[in-house]
Amino acid sequence: MKGRNLSGEAKESWRISFSHVEKKIITSHGNKKTCCEGKANKCCRKRCLMLLKSLIEGLKQRFPKELDPLRSYHRKTAFLHMLSIRFDDSMWALQQLPACFLLLLGALEAHTRAGVLPHFFAPNYNLFSGTVFPRKAMSFLLHALEGRPAPAEASRSRLTTLQLCERDI
């Protein structure tokens, strides 16, 4: 992650950026390369990503301290992994938006539960490694994604995962 918890020397070193390639994958999605070119070919990929973005932003606004390590890159990486697994256009039909979003959310939950979210292009680098994503924050995120209060937060009123998503559907 750029500039986070790095020594002065490390902050001045070069880093590889995959943002252009990631953007190309997201915008040129589909195995037939005709997805989203016409009204008949619309899919729900980008809407799923936007719903996950809204959910994560809502959680971060509600719990900024607890979810400080969570970045948009975690969301994007989980989405890229989902695109590589669900590559066929028929798996992302627009009318399947709710099911597709729940699969994406479930994938992020699974990565969080395992504490492993491999970087999409450098899979040996774990974006959920304890050195960059503390276990306490990981546990809090898992509870939030599952829509249940974290043990320390049980008495605090909070929005559930589905309530945060309902605002954007």
**Roughly how many Å apart are the termini?**
31 Å
- Please report the number of helical segments: 7
Low-confidence stretches at least 5 residues in length (pLDDT < 50)? 154-158
Shape estimate: globular
- Beta-strand segment tally: 0
- What integer is the average pLDDT? 82
Give a description of the structure.
Residues 44-141 form the Mab-21-like HhH/H2TH-like domain. Helices cover 47% and strands 0% of the residues. It has 169 residues and is mainly alpha-helical. It has one domain (38-166): Poly(a)-polymerase, middle domain (Orthogonal Bundle), CATH 1.10.1410.40. Helix 3 crosses helix 5 and helix 4 (72-85) crosses helix 5. The longest helix has 18 residues, at 45-62. It is globular, with a radius of gyration of 17 Å.
Keywords:
single chain; 169 residues; mainly alpha; Poly(a)-polymerase, middle domain; globular
List the helices and strands and how they pair.
Blueprint: H1 8-11, H2 19-27, H3 45-62, H4 72-85, H5 97-114, H6 135-145, H7 161-166
Helix pairs in contact: 3-4, 3-5, 4-5, 5-6
Gist of the model:
GO terms for molecular function: 2',3'-cyclic GMP-AMP synthase activity; chromatin binding; double-stranded DNA binding. With 169 residues, this protein is mainly alpha-helical.
